[in-house]
Design goal:
With about 240 residues, this protein is mainly beta. Helix content is about 5%, strand content about 35%. The chain has 2 helices and 18 strands. The chain has a 7-stranded mixed β-sheet, with no helix packed on it. It is globular, with a radius of gyration of 17 Å. The two termini are about 30 Å apart. Keywords: Signal.
């Protein structure tokens, strides 16, 4: 998280905006998003855990959902969204109901820039749901579904500082093998530059540890250890 966003998150009032019957209620008020003229370079390595829809946006609204484990019930979660070029970014806290049983939930996303944001190609949008509020979120990452239907494969989006090669492995699940990641197809890749398509079978796991390793100019970078929650739990839609 950038220092600027961290400072803003610390001053977000905790006022619920969602309907009281909602299982996952928007807390941040006002809804925080920014459209920049000049990009800020992201310092985070793990930027997104996202599946996006190839269908066009409808009604000028942003459709967003997340898969949330039951163990996150009764707590806060932080939704982070950023475009590959870093010109659009949002950071907002939600509250998960005490009786959450795990599964998928739509998330309120009252963007004032819906038309502009909806015009960004889905493959150039990164989103992730982190456990904890946006001022003190952990690195535990759950998937976000960006778009209205027929999502593609779940992708892990990384900022590798323009690494030439990146590989993703799962030390407790060697059956998945090693995933070779690919550069993001955009000239402006300030926020994230690499996409790793996750094995479909990984979606059956509630929790998995992953390691990303990048190479640049023939030199091996440091390992990045991550904890992903790709499958939530079989509680279904709530």
């Amino acid at each position: 998280m950038s220092r600027k966003l961290m400072a803003l998150a610390l001053f977000m009032p905790s006022i619920a905006l969602a309907d009281s019957a909602s299982k996952v209620a928007l807390v941040s008020d006002p809804f925080y998003e920014v459209v920049r003229e000049a990009a800020e370079i992201s310092g985070a390595r793990l930027v997104g855990l996202t599946a996006y829809s190839a269908t066009p946006w409808k009604r000028g609204e942003i459709d967003v959902a997340a898969r949330i484990p039951s163990g996150w019930k009764g707590g806060a979660v932080c939704l982070k969204v950023v475009s590959a070029d870093g010109l659009y970014e949002s950071l907002n806290t939600y509250r998960v109901a005490d009786d959450w049983t795990g599964g998928d939930s739509p998330l309120q996303y009252p963007s004032k820039n819906a038309e502009k944001v909806g015009a960004i190609p889905g493959e150039l949008v990164s989103a992730v749901l982190l456990r904890g509020d946006c001022a003190s979120a952990t690195d535990d990452a759950a998937p976000v579904f960006w778009g209205d239907e027929k999502y593609g494969a779940l992708r892990l989006l990384l900022n590798t500082s323009r690494a030439e090669e990146t590989f993703l492995s799962f030390p407790a699940h060697y059956e998945f093998g090693e995933v070779a990641c690919s550069p993001v197809s955009s000239a402006a890749r300030n926020a994230f530059d690499t996409a790793c398509q996750l094995p479909e079978e990984l979606g059956r796991l509630e929790r998995v540890e992953a390691i990303a390793l990048s190479f640049k100019n023939g030199e091996m970078g440091r390992e990045e250890h991550m904890v992903l929650f790709p499958g939530g739990e079989p509680g279904g839609d709530n």
